[in-house]
Structure formats: C-alpha cells, structure tokens
Write a structure and sequence with these properties.
There is one protein chain. The protein is α+β, with helices and mostly antiparallel strands and 467 residues long. Helices cover 42% and strands 21% of the residues. It contains 13 helices and 15 strands. The termini are far apart.
Length: 467
C-alpha cells in the first residue's frame, strides 16, 4: 500500500465528467501490425518493471487521507490491451478523430488506470499504439520513460520472460483510515525536522526563501490582470485532437541563428498559431497576449525510473500582438529568461510540497477552486517533453514518430503538447470538441511560424555569404 503524493492526488481531485485527467502517447510503427498476442506477450514480460500497471486506487473513508495504491487481485492484462482498426483509407484525420473519442472516455477507477490501444488500418500499412494513462500515475516525462521501458531499444532484443506475481492482500477500511490518521500525526514531526534542517543550514534556507518569495511575486505579476477571449469558458465532455510534425534539426538551426532556447522557438511558433486562430475567429490581437501555463520538470536524474508526477510550472504570456517573427521570438526569450531569473518554477515546486501538509479534504477543495481560477489566470497549457534520441521498437517494428496528448480542464479549452523523437518534433493540440473545433487553424499557424523563422534564418545566411 502506497499513498499518492499531493501532486498525484490533485489530478484525481480535478477530474469530473468534463475534466478527463488522462494523458496519452500515440506511437506510429512500421507495418505490418503485430499478430494476436504478440504485443500482449511483450507487455507481460515487463509488468514487473511498472508496478502501477497492476495496482488500483483505494480511497480513504471520509477523505481522511489521500488515496493509496494497492495491488489489484483481479488484474487481467487482456482487459487493458485492446485492438481496433480505422476504416479505409486510414488517413491521419481518421486517426486523430479516433484518439479524440478514446480520450473523451474516463478510465475505470476500479481497475489499474491505463489502457493500450492497438490501431490497425493506417495508411502506408503502418499501425499505431495509444498508451493512455491517468495523470495521477505519471507526468509527461514519466510517460516518456514508460515508453522506454515498454518498448525495445533493438529490433531483435533478447527475450524477457514474465516474472511470477502474487498480489498483496487488500487493506480493510479500518487499515485505510488508521494509516491516514497515523500520517496526520507524523506530519507535524516531518515539518519540525524540515525546520530544524533549515536552521542547521541558515544560508541555504535563506537562499531558498528568497527564491520562493521572488518566484511568488513573479507569479502574482503574471496574473494581475484578466485576459479574456474565446480561448476560455465552459468545456464539454468531448475532445478533438490534431497535430503537426516538424524537423527538429531545423528548429535547432533557427535557435542557433536567432538565439534563445529550443523551448523559446517552440513557444514562438505556437504564439504564431494562436495569432492565426484568434484572427480567424475575428478577435483583436493588437497588444494582446495569450497566457500559457508552461510545465517545468523538476525530476532529478536519479528519479527517471520513478513513475509519478514531478513537475512545477511557469506562466508565459505569448505575445500574439507581435507580427514580426524575430521580434516575437526575442520577446519570448527575454520573458522566459526573466521567469527563470525570478524562480517561478522554484515557487511552484515549494508550494506543491507545502500543500502536502494540508488535510486531503482541503486539498480536494483547493484543486476545484484552482480549476475555476484558471478562467482568470490561464488560457492554455503548452508542454514540451523531450523524447528518446535513439530508435525504439515494438515486436520488431520500428517506431516512426510519436505524439503526446495533454488534457484540458477547468475553463481552458485548448492545450498543446510537444514531443521530440530522433529528428522529428511533433505538436499535438487538444481542443474542446464543442468550443474549439478549429484547432487545425492553430496547427497551420504553427507550420507557418516555423516557415517564417526558417525564411529569416536563410535570409541571414545569405546576407553573411554575400559579405
């Protein structure tokens, strides 16, 4: 029995009939699709490496404590691995529509919170694998690590045999309640030890306090005014999903020429996409910014084997009112450098850890209040997850490309997830089906933004060649 962290539990408390807090990775593989049972055998041999795949949630009576992970005595692999197929011709649009439908369905909380969908019938005789799991299980980085665990790094790796597994006994309601009460009694002690450690290292404690207050002020400055547009408002239970694929080497060349970071370039082209989207809706963009939550991984190198959530966030104001692509990129680079200097991500991480001392009922209430607050603070979420640099394989078939699915919640109607694999960077856009059916405009705007920055890069290269 293992209790969810406060951050993991927050994604459970946020979920309702409209907020589906599941993330996903869609991998496209070369054909032919695996035969019946092949993929099941591969996943079965790795279940011992991912304990969460055979565990389910148990909730503490009266919300006396956060939920806990317990072994599922009725675990059945075939329930979690499912097969489907696209109708002819198996175009990208059909696959995107299918993923949108699958992600509109909540996972069954009485079972382990994951599914794998094998999708056949893709064009060019390829096939897809959709790994869907609840956000309380993992964040984007951990989900990427999961791909590296479930898939092979060689086309013909040594065979791995499944290991025997005996589920641990289920805790009783009394045991669930007693363990939660025990944790409450030990929380003050943990706080005392943390305070004592801080006193033993006063300079380090003072530095962390300065960073925390600096980051908190930066958050406050970023949310001191409302940013109203059609990007915010009520959301329905259904999702649409679209994507755009780009050349990662070209993104790197743009960064080398124009400065900033790869993430700055990514945010700049997304800004171009939102500019196109708002203009297509007839909304003014002059002197306007789109406020985005930008998740930041705080996972240490030695934590990459852990399947959980280890993420903080910064708030970025995407300057959609700037038409010039280079000025747009420069503005974003300066802004993100300032956020890092003022430790926004540090403040977010500390706030998350402090909330672990609050009673679960208050944490649940706070999660719902935060979802409602997003209407005034956040208009979109843009997450950039670095993927594996080496090729991955499933039952001897190479993974050609992959896309991430980011959930939307509260009043946020659109989210964007980036993922890199080998020489490709993918942009996947989640939209509310009823209020954001036009996310293809955003994808085309992203494509145009990359083309504009590439054109400026080539122009500068030509100018240098003339000199």
């Amino acid at each position: 029995m293992e209790r969810l962290s406060i951050q993991d539990a927050s994604f459970i408390y946020l979920e309702n009939e409209y907020n589906h807090m599941s993330i996903a990775a869609l991998a496209i593989f070369e054909g032919p699709a695996p035969a019946e049972g092949e993929l099941e055998q591969m996943i079965s041999s790795r279940l011992d490496l991912v304990p969460r795949f055979r565990q389910r949630l148990r909730f503490v009576p009266l919300d006396l404590g956060r939920p806990v992970w317990c072994d599922d005595p009725h675990f059945t692999l075939r329930y979690h691995i499912r097969h489907t197929a696209l109708p002819t011709p198996g175009a990208d649009e059909q696959l995107q529509l299918m993923v949108g439908r699958l992600m509109s369905q909540q996972l069954d909380r009485t079972r382990p919170l994951w599914e794998i969908w094998v999708v056949e019938g893709l064009s060019a005789e390829n096939w897809g694998m959709l790994l869907k799991l609840h956000h309380c299980v993992a964040d984007g980085v951990a989900a990427t690590d999961l791909l590296g665990i479930l898939l092979d790094k060689k086309r013909k790796p040594p065979k791995r045999k499944p290991r025997p597994w005996i589920p641990e006994p289920q805790p009783s309601l009394y045991q669930l309640s007693a363990s939660a009460m025990t944790e409450h009694l030990t929380s003050p002690r943990k706080a005392f030890h943390a305070a004592r450690s801080a006193m033993e290292a006063p300079r380090e404690a003072a530095r962390k306090l300065r960073d925390f207050l600096d980051g908190l002020n930066s958050f406050r400055d970023s949310t001191k005014h409302d940013a109203e547009s059609s990007l915010n408002g009520p959301v329905g239970p259904h999702r649409n999903w679209r994507w755009h694929s780009a050349s990662l080497p070209e993104i790197k060349r743009i960064r080398s020429t124009h400065g900033g970071t790869i993430n700055d370039v990514v945010l700049a082209v997304i800004t171009r996409g939102f500019r196109a989207l708002l203009q297509s809706r007839g909304e003014p963009v002059d002197n306007y910014v789109v406020r985005s939550l930008v998740p930041v991984s705080v996972r240490r190198e030695d934590e990459h084997s852990q399947v959980n959530n280890r993420v903080s966030a910064m708030l970025a104001e995407l300057p959609v009112g700037i038409e010039d692509p280079l000025q747009n990129l420069a503005a974003i680079s300066a802004q993100m450098s300032e956020h890092k200097e003022h430790h926004q991500a540090v403040a977010g991480e500390i706030l998350s850890s402090l909330s672990g001392l609050a009673p679960p009922a208050l944490v649940a209430m706070g999660s719902h209040l935060f979802a409602g607050m997003e209407q005034h603070a956040v208009q979109t979420v843009t997450t950039n997850v670095p993927g594996p640099k080496q090729a991955l394989y499933a039952v001897g078939r190479k993974m050609l490309t992959a896309f991430l699915y980011v959930p939307i919640a509260g009043s946020v109607r659109i989210g964007v997830a980036m993922f890199s694999y080998e020489d490709t960077l993918t942009f996947a856009v989640t939209g509310d089906y009823d209020h954001a059916p036009d996310t293809d405009v955003l994808c085309k705007g992203i494509e145009a933004g990359i083309a504009e920055l590439s054109k400026e890069r080539e122009k500068q290269a030509g100018d240098r060649a003339c000199v």
